[in-house]
Amino acid sequence: MTKGNLQISEQGQNRLIVEMAGQYGTRPMDALKEYVTNAVDALSGVENGLVSVLLKPDINSIVVQDNGMGMSTEELERLPISIGESVKYDKVDQRGEKGVGLLAFGSLGMRMHIISRQSRGDQYGYLRYEISKNKGNITYELSSVDDRDMHNFGGSFNYGTQILINVDEKTFRNKFKSTLVKGELQEIYHPLLCEDEIGFELGVGDKKRERIPAKRPRGASIIDEDVSFQTRKAKDLVDHVFHVNLNFDKDTDSGRIGVYSKGVMVYKSILDLGEDLIQGCELWKCRQLKGYIDDPNLTLTIGRDKIDSQRNSNAYNGLVEMLVSLDDLYWPGVEERLERSRTEKDRKLIHTIHGKLQRVFEYENLDPLNKKVKPESEKQIIDWGVHDDKTENGTERRKRKKRTSPFGMPELSNFEIGERDLRSRLEDRTGEAPFIRINESHEDYQKIVVEKPQSAEAELYIVRAMAGPMALWESTKAVEDGSTYISTEQHIEKVMRRTDDLVYKLIVK
């Protein structure tokens, strides 16, 4: 019997390294994130740390630079021969762990340049990675450069590290527009930008680089504080602290709560953790909430591959329990805000449509149903409907006197048992202006207006809910004023056609 460890041939190793370099092929911004995050890590313990991202359209390249301690010649020499090893592994102040992030350039282009030095008087250490034309392997070249050579890269600097990536032209033009890059960086590093302990700046070509500000949240703050919990590891109690930031924005329906690890986004949404208990929490599903949770001390290494092996750990279960408890604590208040916001939006929509229908009702070419007409015996019927401004002969039709709409502002109500199948009804009390009462508890109202509040379907629903009772009131007043109908069917037809008049005249306007 023969036993041993599996091995990879040199050709196999080369092919796997190239494949790892292209792992972000459909997500170029994730590839750039590897280098920006490395720059952030290089600033640990550095005062006035600064990460610069420079887009160079003239050569389709991206430069990422930090003003950290820089790398020695020995450190540069070790990089290309230690793929898969990482000095950051298990360090609580560092975010990487697999030692393959530097290969991400292969998802953007064929070549990368690393330039670093530790003080102003030193030469720059220079390391170049390049994927072969047949994509069979990645070669490297190690040398040094001086200030006279730095115009070929991102410009000279005193100390720190600079990485220049030669990007595929199509990828650069389509994926790395300055506005897109700025927005992505603001989202990926939001907590770090808020803390302002590390600066981020973005430049394009020879233009002055501009500081990237944090996106300030809109709406009301629900919570912005550290939340702690304890778990047991062996015989010891371990403290875990997460920063939780939640903001309620009634004017959005695309909110989500990101998951961050030491200030860097690792999941766009808490729901991406894929936990059933979290999926059942209304708080984390609410589309009017924006914010994040951040593990500032990397106690759970969220976002690393190790998270999957930790899903049964006490620490991870403690995180899930914390999120569930936050749902219990804050959802009732958020739900109340949602209800108030929804009611405000519904009323605003209804008031807007009420004003439009008022103008349609008063429209000069929309004949009143109680217009004086000749008796039925003379083959005349009640004139109704929408008419053109001109006669058949092309002459101007005589303008009719503008009517005044009698309807008051509509109201939202929950209809009682026995009326719950009604979408709306007319309220016409003696001594009061008639108005329309809309049933907000109706199933269709909930599905159309509540779930899709700013849609054309919601607006049409409200229009029809109001137009029908308005037409009914007008036909009733016509009878009271002496108009007659041949039959009940004709009366119903008049109401239906008047409803259509109001609806479609509004659509036309």
Write the layout of secondary structure elements.
Blueprint: H1 10-21, H2 28-42, E1 49-56, E2 61-66, H3 73-78, E3 111-117, E4 124-131, E5 138-145, E6 160-166, H4 169-175, H5 178-188, H6 190-195, E7 198-204, E8 210-211, E9 220-233, E10 236-248, E11 257-261, E12 264-267, H7 276-279, H8 282-285, E13 289-295, H9 306-309, H10 314-361, E14 411-413, E15 424-427, E16 435-439, H11 443-450, H12 456-480, H13 488-508
Parallel strand pairs: 1-7, 11-13, 14-16
Antiparallel strand pairs: 1-2, 2-6, 3-4, 3-6, 4-5, 7-8, 9-10, 10-13, 11-12, 15-16
Helix pairs in contact: 10-12, 10-13, 11-12, 12-13
Keywords:
alpha+beta; 13 helices; Heat Shock Protein 90; Four Helix Bundle (Hemerythrin (Met), subunit A); five-stranded mixed sheet; 509 residues; eight-stranded mixed sheet
Helix content: 25-40%
For the CA atoms, what is the radius of gyration?
A: 34 Å
What is the domain total for the residues?
3
**Main β sheet profile:** 8 strands, mixed
Main-sheet strand order equals 5-4-3-6-2-1-7-8
The helix-strand sequence is: HHEEHEEEEHHHEEEEEEHHEHHEEEHHH
Could you tell me the CATH topology label of the largest domain: Heat Shock Protein 90
Distance between the termini: 88 Å
User: What is the overall silhouette?
Assistant: elongated
User: What is the CATH architecture term of the largest domain?
Assistant: 2-Layer Sandwich
CATH class (first level) name of the largest domain:
Alpha Beta
Class per helix and strand makeup: alpha+beta
Return residue spans where pLDDT drops below 50 for at least 5 consecutive residues: 89-93, 376-387
Name given to the CATH homologous superfamily of the largest domain: Histidine kinase-like ATPase, C-terminal domain
